[in-house]
Amino acid sequence: FGGGKVVERAMVEQRYKYVRLHAEGHTEEMLFDLEQDPDERVNLMRRPALQTEVERLRGLMDAELSRLGE
C-alpha cells in the first residue's frame, strides 16, 4: 500500500487469524495459521484447502462490521 491511510480489521480465533486491509481503494486479505505460524509469516489466503475457512471468517467479519455500522 502507498503512503495513504490504511485500515486493518482482523478476526482472530484459536487457530486462524483473518486480516483485511483497505487503502486507497485497494483491499488485501490474509489468513494465518496461528498454531503452525505464530509469527504470521505465511499468508494462506490462496490455499484451496482453506477456502471454506476463509469464507467462514469473511462472513463473521462482514457480520461484525455490519453490526458496528461500518
How would you sum up this structure, described in words?
- The protein contains 1 helix and 3 strands, in the order βββα.
- The chain has a 3-stranded antiparallel beta sheet with strand order 1-2-3, covered by helices on one side.
- The mean pLDDT is 93.
- The chain has one helix spanning 51-67, and strands at 6-12, 16-23, 26-33.
- The protein is an alpha+beta fold.
Query: What sequence of helices (H) and strands (E) makes up the elements?
Result: EEEH
Query: How would you sum up the major sheet?
Result: 3 strands, antiparallel
Major sheet: order of its strands?
1-2-3
Query: How many extended strands?
Result: 3
Taking Cα atoms only, what radius of gyration do you get, to the nearest Å? 13 Å
Oligomer: single chain
Q: What proportion strand?
A: 25-35%
Low-confidence residue ranges: none
Count of individual helical segments:
1
Shape: globular
Helix content: 10-25%
Q: End-to-end span in angstroms?
A: 21 Å
Provide the structure class: alpha+beta
Would you tell me the overall average pLDDT? 93
Core attributes:
3 strands, 1 helix, globular, single chain, 70 residues
Outline:
With about 70 residues, this protein is α+β, with helices and mostly antiparallel strands. The chain is about 25% helix and about 35% strand.
